[in-house]
Amino acid sequence: MVTFLMPRFVPRLVSFEGMGRRSASVTERNIACLRSMYWVVMVSGFVEPVLYLFSIGVGVGALIGDLPLPGGRLVGYAEFVAPAMLASAAMTGALSETTFNFFGKMKFMRLYEGILATPVRPIEIALGELAWAMVRGVLYSAAFLGIMVAMDLTSAARALAMFPATVLIGFAFGALGMTVSTVIRSWQDFDLIVAGQFALLLFSGTFVPPTAYPAVVRWLIEVTPLYRSVDLVRALSLGPVGWTQALDVLYLLAVLVIGLTVAGRRMEKMLCK
Amino acid sequence: MESLIHARGLVKRFEGFTAVDGIDVDVRRGEAFGFLGPNGAGKSSTMRMIGCVSPPTDGVLRILGLDPRRDGPKIRAKLGVCPQLDNLDIELSVRENLTTYARFFGIPRRVARQRADELLEFVQLTERADSKVEPLSGGMKRRLTIARALVNEPEIVLLDEPTTGLDPQARHLVWERLFRLKQQGVTLVLTTHYMDEAEQLCDRLVVMDGGRIVAEGSPRALIEQYSTREVVELRFAAESQEAYAEKLAGLGERLEVLPDRILLYVADGDKAAAEVQRRSLAPASVLVRRSSLEDVFLHLTGRTLVD
């Protein structure tokens, strides 16, 4: 029967206390609804970059031969493409969870309305969903790193260094995706996201070094988040690591913080009218 | 008497229109309090402010002595909310809907499981525990939503139109469960536009119209104040009931002409019916009934459709 427990102690002023716990409960909800079918979705996100790696990295790479790195060292084309595919896998994992799924839960399942009637706050939903997107992104990255090491496209030690970088990339894109989700109006807008994501995949120094383009285009490329991500993991994979990579990390951290703040605020505006 | 919900001059404005226009409310511990009113009266907006998911535009609002602007999470920890439209988690099973929800309140998993089982029993859904939410009937979904609202053992349960859209059996089951909650000392706050629901459940209620409170009291007191003890419904065979209205003059405190019948508001229905016979008006049908909250409601908020 319903009985009454003493209310548990709750901190007085609005604070960060309990924030982690409440965010984790949102992540937990996603784990609870992991069903057999969901694995299909998860596997598909992993297969895509692997296909690119084999078709373009290995296939087209055989026609292209070696490429010079900024340091002057020559590397095989597959070695050049693989880190970019890794960054792209981290991006895809984070974006698919924070755009399509997040939007659906917010607008159509009215899931967050229910959650917001509990002590959980909008920013905590955002954090919890982001953490979940990370779980997915991290799985993609780890699997892809395994393939890279197995194919001798990088060393195991370098793979270990790249792993935290992919987590950061995932976080940044997750926060970005969430912000975009709070802005878009309908499912039709997702076509734009897909197109944007594809453009990023093609032009972010992934298959071709940005130096191959005219200066203006190159500047444009170099400010995109995927380019900064590719630059970071490629340097970690093939060397040399320098100040540019510190800039990449700062850039991604900024995207993460700004994205999360904006997403939390906009969610509050939309759901707590 | 301790006031769990205390509002003074509470206002909610959206761009261009005022949903709640300065209301004063006090809800005491253990009572069942109702917000009555037609659609668009401001009931749901009020409920959302009390639920701490909609910041008040103006006025004072204290829930359990706390300010929702500052202590939202702390207040929500002690509220149970059953929204107008079910927002159950369709990706989870019936039981998981309760256990997962409990986790949002920080309730330990073991306690959550135990409480889920108790609550499923309480709303008679034990047999459907492992079913998905989608195939459940409207009444089952509503019962599950009510169970979910109880998972944190709330001090106040907010129910926004708890039985709208349910069939009679389902409504009665919901009422019976809510009544049991009330007996256990849970404070219930509900909105409804069903008069029988308000009469069944509410100790005290306010009638809202156009964002304002137009009447307040117990169902009994409201009927006494705004209606007569009995109502005589007269149907005349003629096409227009209008013609008979003047012949009935002086028969009751108030008389209302509807397209198909005339309502006489009187203290003694049988006496009035006899008088109608004496004036040899020969209505096709005569019905003497007790005055209900519906009469009060229609008197206060009018018969015009507001939608």
What does this structure look like?
The complex is a heterodimer of chains A (273) and B (307). Chain A has helices at 19-32, 36-64, 77-108, 111-116, 122-150, 156-183, 190-203, 215-222, 225-238, 243-271, and strands at 66-68, 74-76. By secondary structure, chain A is mainly α. Chain A has a two-stranded antiparallel ribbon. In chain A, β1 (66-68) and β2 form a beta hairpin. In chain A, α2 (36-64) crosses α5, α6 (156-183) packs parallel to α10 (243-271) and α9 packs antiparallel against α10 (243-271). Chain B has 307 residues and is an alpha/beta fold. Chain B has helices at 43-50, 68-76, 94-104, 109-122, 138-149, 168-183, 195-201, 219-226, 242-245, 269-278, 293-301; strands spanning 3-14, 17-28, 32-36, 58-63, 79-82, 156-160, 187-192, 204-209, 212-217, 230-235, 254-257, 262-266, 285-290. Chain B starts with a strand and ends in a 6-residue tail after the last helix. The interface between A and B is large, with 37 and 44 residues.
Sum this structure up briefly.
The complex is a heterodimer of chains A (273) and B (307). With 273 residues, chain A is mainly alpha-helical.
Low-confidence stretches of chain B: none
Mean pLDDT across all amino acids of chain B: 89
Sequence of strands across the biggest β-sheet of chain B: 5-6-7-3-8-9
CATH architecture of the largest domain in chain B: 3-Layer(aba) Sandwich
Provide a count of the helices of chain B: 11
Q: What's the number of extended β-strand segments of chain B?
A: 13
Please state roughly what percent of the residues of chain B sit in beta strands, choosing from under 5%, 5-15%, 15-25%, 25-35%, 35-45% or over 45%. Answer: 25-35%
Indicate the CATH class of the largest domain in chain B.
Alpha Beta
| Main β-sheet, spatial strand arrangement of chain A | 1-2
Shape of chain B: elongated
Most residues in contact, chain pair and counts: A-B, 37 and 44 residues
Uncertain residue ranges of chain A: 1-15
Helix vs. strand class of chain B: alpha/beta
The H-level CATH homologous superfamily of the largest domain in chain B, spelled out, is: P-loop containing nucleotide triphosphate hydrolases
Q: What is Rg of chain B?
A: 23 Å
What is the terminal-to-terminal distance of chain B?
A: 38 Å
Order of helices and strands of chain B: EEEHEHEHHHEHEHEEHEHEEHEH
Quaternary structure: heterodimer
Q: What integer is the average pLDDT of chain A?
A: 84
Order of helices and strands of chain A: HHEEHHHHHHHH
State the shape of chain A: elongated
